[in-house]
Structure formats: structure tokens, C-alpha cells
Amino acid sequence: HVQLVESGGGLVQAGGSLNLSCAATGKTNILNCLGWFRQAPGKEREGVAVITRIDGGTQYADSGKGRFTVSQDDAKNTLYLQMNSLKPEDTAMYYCAADPLPAHIFMPKEYTSWGQGTQVTVS
Fold first, then answer.
1. Res. 117 pLDDT band, cuts 50 70 90
2. Rounded Cα gap, residues 115 and 104, in angstroms
């Protein structure tokens, strides 16, 4: 069983930055794929960025390319999402998720472990 706890959300002005963290505990050694997702009110949950633990490879949805950076600290079992040049349309609840081997890395239903989310509001 894996527990994920996000932090780092908040209120920021457009153009500002936030760095989200996701601390993982439990059987983290089985997790190969770690991802950040977000869900705005009235919208479906969508993938933002994903990292694979084996090789550190990253992939980004178009919404975050060039502005967001996903990274991991294996020693701390922590996932990060550095978000720069934030826009009002980035306002959402941000979740981290993990799975041993998702078939489609940006599909939320493929992930078995989820955090409770951290709110990001861009004014």
C-alpha cells in the first residue's frame, strides 16, 4: 500500500511560480511511474507531467510544456512539480499519482495510488 501527500499549493499572481511536492510512503519500490494531474471545477482530471523512476524520463502534456518541470528525489521518496509563468487557466486542484506500470501515462484511470490534492489558484 502506498500513501501520497501533496503540498505546496497556494494563491499566486499570473506570471508567478509554485513548487509542488508529493511525499510517498509505503511500498514505494514497486512504483515506476509518478505523475501530476489536475482537475479544475467542472472539468475532467487531466495529466500534467509524468516521470519514470527507472530512467528519470519525463513527459509533459501540452499545457505544461516549457513552463512546468517534474523531478524526483529518490532518497526522500518525493516528487516535485516546479511551475513557472503560471496562468489563470492553471487554477485547479493538483494531484500526484503513482502506479507500477500504467498502460497510458496521462490517463487517470491507469493510476492506482492518489494523494488528496493541493489547490493552486492563479489570479
1. very high
2. 19
* pLDDT category of residue 9 using cuts at 50, 70 and 90: very high
Q: Residue 28 and residue 88: Cα distance in Å, rounded?
A: 34
Distance CA 53, CA 34 (A): 7
Cβ partners under 8 Å of residue 4, min gap 6:
22, 23, 24, 96, 97, 98, 113, 114, 115
> What cell numbers appear for 31 in the block?
512504483
- The CA angle 3-58-37, to the nearest 5 degrees, is 45
Q: How many whole angstroms separate alpha carbon 59 and alpha carbon 61?
A: 7
Candidates 102, 100, 95; CA nearest to 21 is 95
**Residue of 88, 107, 117, 97 whose CA lies nearest to 15:** 88
